[in-house]
Amino acid sequence: MLSEALSKALSEQVNAEYYSAYLYQAMSAYADRAGFKGIANWLSIQAKEEMAHGVHMYEHILERGGTPSFGDVKAPPSSYKSIREVFEKVLAHEIHVTERINKIASLSMQENDHATYNFILWYVNEQIEEEKNAEDIIAKIAIMGDNTGLIYHLDMELAGRTFTDPFPAAAADTAAG
Ligand code: OFO
């Protein structure tokens, strides 16, 4: 059974994942209004992934007999100076999320909760990809400078991103009852 401390930490992380979704959706709106539909698509899919991260974590709390708690999801910033700034903020946010996830991993170990430790390792690994994705895009933007024509190439590339359920097995289990 999940301890109270881990129930609280995981519930707060569910909230943080929902905030991530909200943040990326707001960034997507900025990119869309600035005319970068492909970048807006990438950010919108990122928002969907964050929702899936939050739901999956919520389900773990219930599955382990914990009590999920709910708080306000804070409002994200909605205006940005440039696409470069957007992705710098994505990276800074993901670094922050990595710190949060690592704290939950440490707490699971302290409490000898091997099931939660095993569960949170998926998120630990996911954070490697989350930070790398943002770093790769920032590196491309650094080469492009403020050349809007080149940013449109990035826009076309990011238009190709499609949503893949990060937890297809869990979705199939739910469907099967
Ligand atoms: Fe949930 O990985 Fe980004 O924040």
Task: Explain what you see.
This protein has 177 residues and is an all-alpha fold. The protein has one domain (4-162): Ferritin (Up-down Bundle), CATH 1.20.1260. It is 77% helix and 0% strand. It is built from 6 helices and no strands. It has helices spanning 4-33, 37-63, 83-110, 114-144, 148-158, 168-176. Helix 4 packs antiparallel against helix 5. It is elongated and about 55 Å long. The model has no long low-confidence stretch (mean pLDDT 94). The structure holds hydroxy diiron-OXO moiety.
Record keyword descriptors for this entry:
6 helices, Ferritin, elongated, binds hydroxy diiron-OXO moiety, single chain, 177 residues, mainly alpha
Put the structure in a nutshell:
The protein has 177 residues and is an all-alpha fold. 77% of the residues lie in helices and 0% in strands.
Percentage of residues in strands? under 5%
CATH class: Mainly Alpha
How many DSSP E strands?
A: 0
Through-space gap between termini? 22 Å
Instruction: Tell me the number of helical segments per DSSP (H or I, 4 or more residues long).
Output: 6
What class would the helix/strand composition place it in?
A: mainly alpha
Which ligands occur here? hydroxy diiron-OXO moiety
**Which range best describes the helical content: under 10%, 10-25%, 25-40%, 40-55%, 55-70% or over 70%?**
over 70%
| Pattern of helices and strands | HHHHHH
Give the CA-based shape.
elongated
Assembly form of the protein? single chain
CATH architectural type:
Up-down Bundle
Can you tell me the number of structural domains?
1
CATH superfamily name? Ferritin, core subunit, four-helix bundle
Q: What name does CATH use for the topology?
A: Ferritin
